[in-house]
Amino acid sequence: MKDVFILGIESSCDETAAAVVKNGREVLSNIISSQIDIHTIYGGVVPEIASRLHIQNINGVIRLALKEAGKTFDDIDAIAVTYGPGLVGALLAGVSEAKALAYALNKPLVGVHHIEGHVAANFIAHPKLKPPFVCLIVSGGHTHLVVVKDYGSFEIIGKTGDDAAGEAFDKVARAVGLGYPGGPKVDKLAREGNPHAIEFPRGEIKGAPYDFTFSGLKSAVLNYINHANMTGEEINKADLCASFQNAVVESLVERTVACAKEYKYDTVAMAGGVSANSALRKAMEEACTSAGLSCCYPDIILCTDNAAMIASAGYYEFINGNIADEYLNAVPNLKLGER
Ligand code: KG4
Ligand code: ZN
User: Fold this and answer.
1) What is the residue with the minimal CA distance to atom 24 of ligand 1?
2) 268 and 171 in one domain?
3) Do 74 and 188 reside in the same domain of the chain?
């Protein structure tokens, strides 16, 4: 069979990214232009600035992705682009670019769901991994426990009723004064702290054993900080981060392993920015080993936003004939499993 080369484009938040992936699994290039330094000044992503920087950088990023892959546009079989969910202006930059390229080059265009991309990062990291398997999706905007039934086909088993896991990390980081982006900073500081120092609540949603809730935990952390500020007690930030992180990790790992056992799948995967968390990776690995499950997750660079994962997901959409037309538009609140 002829090799298939997909050019992936990702611009849903604050990374302008392009990648070339062969047959959905082999990364030939993965270029990420991060805007973090600029958004850090404002303490979070400023949508307007993100859109402008995508527009400014996207052509250069694509050119570099082709160059590093040793390919030209002629070698590309299809152009895959994230069309949702995400910031509308940021998504439009990538979608418009992809549409223009597809039109000018007369190549097929594939619209990719950003979260489907995160899941596909596992196909790159684990070339033998095939559906079905259980996947914990934990990003800045999503916390979903799903069964990946087939490429691009998901059954949602559980989801968050309030904050996403990444959002909780970011909010706690801000409250502790660590700034943006919060998750990696909490992860780093937590390594110096005691995860059992402070007993924070593990939220549950009655009647929905696989759903998550982090708002109670977040409030408990904020109350703890306020109380300490009022009484003049000094906060051990490392202990606080470790204890908060431990509460999040426990609730994620517990439900994921229980889901794999109940639904009888022998493989657990993780996807999304929070799956870069060192404590989560370790705890999930240990829990899977003792439950006799295999555990996989992508390299850190493939956990957070990138275009290789979009090209991989795009490959499976492409070979299934899911080609977008010239009316493809950004869908900022695109739900998982929707087209
Ligand atoms: O998947 P992602 O890069 O973007 C979205 O699609 O949302 O996820 C970003 C989220 C942020 O909330 C960030 O704080 C979190 O992932 N994150 C982490 C770590 N690295 C990134 N959270 C905890 N530990 C980390 N090491
Ligand atoms: Zn993402």
Assistant:
1) 277
2) yes
3) no
Q: Is residue 333 part of a domain?
A: no
Residue 125 backbone dihedrals phi, psi, to 5 degrees:
-70, -30
Q: Determine, yes or no, domain membership for 336.
A: no
pLDDT tens digits along 35-64? 888 888 888 888 999 999 999 999 999 999
Structural domain for 172, as ranges: 132-299
Nearest CA to ligand 1 atom 21: 273
Rg, the chain, Cα only: 20
- Based on the fold, state whether residues 113 and 160 are members of the same structural domain: no
CATH number at residue 225: 3.30.420.40
- pTM greater than the 0.90 cutoff: yes
Distance CA 33, CA 14 (A): 9
Residue 339 belongs to some domain of the structure = no
Region for residue 170 given its phi and psi (left: phi exceeds 0; alpha: psi -120 to 50; beta: otherwise): alpha
Instruction: Using the atom order of ligand 1, give the atom closest to the CA of residue 181.
Output: 14
Distance of CA 302 from the midpoint of ligand 2 (Å):
10
- With a Cβ cut-off of 6 Å, ligand 1 is lined by 13, 118, 139-141, 166, 169-170, 181-184, 187, 272-274, 276-277, 304-305
Task: Dump pLDDT digits (tens) for 98-122.
Answer: 999 999 999 999 999 999 999 999 9
Name the pLDDT band for 177 (thresholds 50, 70, 90): very high
Place of tokens 């990374």: 15
Distance, in Å, from the CA atom of 143 to the CA atom of 160, rounded to the nearest integer, reads 6
User: Sign of the C-alpha dihedral, residues 195, 196, 198, 202?
Assistant: positive
- 308 shares a domain with 275: no
